[in-house]
Fold these 3 entries.
Entry 1:
Amino acid sequence: MITWMQRHNKYLVITIWIATIAFIGAGFVGWGSVNFGTKSSSVAEVGDIPISKVKYQFTYGNLYNQYAQKLGANNFDREKAKALGLDKIVFRNLYNQALFLNMAKEYGVTVSAQEVANEIAKFDILKDKDGNVDKKIYENFLRSRGLKAKDFEAIIRDELIVQKLLSLLHVKPLSLEKEAMAATFRIADKIDYKILKLSDANVSVGDDALKKYWEKNRANYLTNTKYNLELLYTKAKDMNFSNDELEKFYKENSFNYVDKDGKIIDFNNSIERVKQDLTVKKLKKVAILERNRFKKGKLKPSEVVTLEEGDKKLSGELWKVIKESEDGSFLKPKVVDGSYVTVHLLKKIAPKEKSFEEAREEVAKEYKVQLQREALNKRAEDLIKDPKALDKSVKEFITLSKFQPIDGLTPQDSMKVTRYIFGSDKRVDKVTISDGLFVYKISEQKLLEDNNTLPTLDKEIASIKNAELDSNLFKDLSSKYSLKVYVKGLQ
């Protein structure tokens, strides 16, 4: 915005950092594991601190579960996790944590076994109905995550060490900082603007131009990998369980039955899920025996299919195993919709370039958007040079302290535009929005009366200062402690 904001920019930059993810309040959704080809017990080493495979797997699973709970297990799978770059996010978080663990080691910051025990005792999902940590529940929790107690406790210890280190480093806000921040929230702007939507850009896509675009980008238009598979289903027979059996199973696995807030759901409201889970557990032995007979040719497949990679007929976890397997492999049974499926991978059919006709619809859509964006950018530049054609104005002053939707924009785009305006030193500019461009001119600016925000800014200022401190520390620690990565593709 405007000069004052630039002069005080150091107070306004927020760097987001997550040290680690010790999140175990979420129910377990069966995220599987990440397959590493290295024989090393670590995926990387930062200075003197190794990042173990166990810790990476656990952290990946926890973050995966968080996304699955927020989006719904049916809306989040390994393909979406891969597209999101979840593996790289996890590695970056653990790398950041390892930097601070090196620093803590250098300065002698430690935590005791009692502090670790006290932290674990806070996790409600490990407690019995009387509120005490139950050893059996704890053992089952560790078993379900593929963890040993010493590994889990080491993960918690590292988390506590970093928390203790940061509490020693972080400082309280100064009076000058409060005043600077308060002044920021008192600035108010009125703007004239115009919304340029992609749909408003009339562009024509001729066959010759479209074919040239395809020729230039043809390597991007491929068929999906396909798989010839034999599938053997091991379905649940009628299984009856006594109430005692169900209650025992629930008690030992209660950490898996939680609501969206991470609170344990009682037995009566979990009973249908308990029955399903216990059925699946009992069915596993049958599935293993049937796989052996299937492999020896004593059982015929339930069906033979050719599926595109990621087809919803199979689970995301199963697809990951299929993709990493060789032709002819008989895979271990996996749960799909309450039954076990054993896959015999007959043959992988590699992707190939689509012909122009096969790719035409996809190419036309992408090329049209490119032409529309080019047209909008040209129109936006003309408006910036001569903003008289800006045809809308906000009725009230916009500020950082109070969210105000802008007519014609979604709440998300309104927030994005507001933040951009108050972070720019230009009076006339353009902002990319979800379906086009937003061109604006600041027509009026004023300083609001003091609204006595000083007492409420401590948390915000501390967050900004500490984020800035963490960011600068990262730079120093990254140059000080070397990184060795043993697994490709994590950075």
Note: The chain has three domains: 3-172+460-485, 184-212+356-447, 223-349.
Entry 2:
Amino acid sequence: MDDTDRKILKELQEDGRASFREISSRIKVSTPTVSSRVQGMTDNGLITGYSVLLNADMLGQTSVATIIEAKPSEIDAVVERIKGEDIVRLIHVLSDSRILCILSFYDQKKYRSFVQSLSRISEIAKMDNSMILRTAKEMPRASLTDESGLHLKCYYCGHPMKDEGVKVKMDGRTHYLCCGVCAKLYKEKYERMKEAARTPAFA
């Protein structure tokens, strides 16, 4: 990630509705450059989507911070059980075998029902809930500085990539692999999946 990428991301964080033309004018690069950089950062997973930030208090929602304790080996199982719940708006797995969740809801019955469901999850050892009275600051967790770098994982083996690795362009998207071996295996797997998708189920 270079200085141009950082400038584009800062513009998008400040105004997600800005057009590529507007961004290109502000940072003094061409519109196609902005477009291709944004596409690349979307393909590699750095940009995960665009959304509108809403004020939960103005919507009349109640928010609760929940701390869940579990054995280290059971953390993933607990996360899988709760991450699909609409009431759960944020999940952080902490280093001390705890999970921090932010819950937001309108209906107290829904909240009580969710807490009761947590009590039935055998992997949970302890749970503490605290109502959020007010929010002094709320910002996206990712912050951009001049030191910001890009930490990619190989699309095939999942290992962290120490450099740019191997870029493979397929079907208009860039795929990132750590080495030539993973690139070869990934392309083979990708083609098998495409072929399977083209083959009728009852052929």
Note: The chain has a mean pLDDT of 88.
Entry 3:
Amino acid sequence: MRKISIIIVSVLIVSSLLVGCEGVLNEGEPAQNSEPQTDGNKANESITEQANIITWDAVLYFSDREGMNIIKREKEIVFIEDVNKQEGTLTIGEKSKLSIEALIEGIKGEDVTTTIPPETDVLSVVLDDKTLIVDLSKEFEQNHIGGSTGIMMTMAPLVLTLTEFEEVEQVKFIVEGNVLEDFKGHIEFNRPFTRGEYSGYLK
């Protein structure tokens, strides 16, 4: 009787050890019904593939580094449209805004420069009949270097670049929605500007 009791106890101990070992071996293994991990980059790639990508060679005008002449350059602009828009539906206002931002950014490796303050934001660009109305942030005026030459080398590239569009005959600038009577005390700023005023500076 005593031998039988000892055997039963031994079997129970061995069984407990085996169960414990199995628990250790299974620790850290994923559950059978766990969902696979997804790569967030794949979702971004999918959106990009669905988007309408528009590229065009924008005609831009910059100042030379001596501030004496205006130089014409081309720069490829890439724009990714909203996936819900029809392909190629950028308006003249939208293209003009992108062109101004490209002017502010400049072209690396080229012997050209811009006097548009880099902190300038393009708030809106609207085409009203043949007049393009450009609303710029206050940094355009506040952070500008001033001086007659500096202002000329800002206005000429802007006006020449924006009047490259056939639909635009003249450009009017406002700052934070306000019409300025003059710009830094040098030029009258409450009127539209035309291409003919600055074409003589082209090199």
Note: The helical segments are 2-26, 40-50, 92-105, 139-142, 148-162.
